[in-house]
Amino acid sequence: MTTERSLILVKPDGYRRGLTGEVLRRIEAKGYTLVALDVTSATQEQLAAHYAEHEGKPFYQPLVDFMSSGPLTAVVVEGEDCIRGFRSLAGATNPTEAAPGTIRGDLGRDWGLKVQQNIVHGSDSPESAAREIAIWFPRLAS
Ligand code: RTP
Ligand code: MG
């Protein structure tokens, strides 16, 4: 077990629906520490860097448009195995398939749109976390 950091985004759907506090509550209730938090509007540069792995996929432009559609909250979380742990709290990417008890399973649903709007993002590996923290919180880059 290692103490590590993860980059979480409460996406614009979560912001619009007033679920930011609920997501933060679940993170804190799990025992993870909030290291940094910023309510912000993503720049095109941030989104291009953040979603570089998805460039060229059919959902890429709808995803960037969705992530540009309003404020989001970027959060750095710290804790033992919090990268895997938060992915577990978040649940499956598709909110219709996400298990009850997870953020996406309890709070997300399929709105029949061009891209899955699933409330949260969480880093998927230590390498992704370091890369994403540098995008959203340059002052914390390691
Ligand atoms: P995230 O990166 O946001 O934590 O989600 P993830 O790892 O579970 O999913 P990923 O495959 O990395 O996809 C990034 C985000 O793109 C949107 N997406 N929509 N077919 C679709 O409608 C579709 N596929 C992906 C979701 O918002 C997903 O979280
Ligand atoms: Mg991902």
UniProtKB/TrEMBL annotation:
The answer to keyword Iron applying to this record is no
Q: Which UniProt keywords apply?
A: ATP-binding, Cytoplasm, Kinase, Magnesium, Metal-binding, Nucleotide metabolism, Nucleotide-binding, Phosphoprotein, Transferase
The protein's job, in short, is:
Major role in the synthesis of nucleoside triphosphates other than ATP. The ATP gamma phosphate is transferred to the NDP beta phosphate via a ping-pong mechanism, using a phosphorylated active-site intermediate.
Can you tell me which family this protein belongs to?
Answer: Belongs to the NDK family.
Which one of the record's GO molecular function terms can you name?
ATP binding
State any GO BP term from the record: GTP biosynthetic process
Q: Which NCBIfam families match?
A: PRK00668.1 (NF001908)
Q: Which reaction does it catalyse?
A: a 2'-deoxyribonucleoside 5'-diphosphate + ATP = a 2'-deoxyribonucleoside 5'-triphosphate + ADP; a ribonucleoside 5'-diphosphate + ATP = a ribonucleoside 5'-triphosphate + ADP
**Listed name of the protein:** Nucleoside diphosphate kinase
PROSITE patterns, sorted: NDPK, NDPK_LIKE
EC number(s)?
2.7.4.6
Q: Which Pfam families match?
A: NDK (PF00334)
**Residues at which ATP binds:** 11, 59, 87, 93, 104, 118
Q: What's the main place this protein lives? A: cytoplasm
What is the primary gene name for this protein? ndk
Location of the Nucleoside diphosphate kinase-like domain:
3-142
Positions annotated as active site in the UniProt record: 121 (pros-phosphohistidine intermediate)
Cofactor field: Mg(2+)
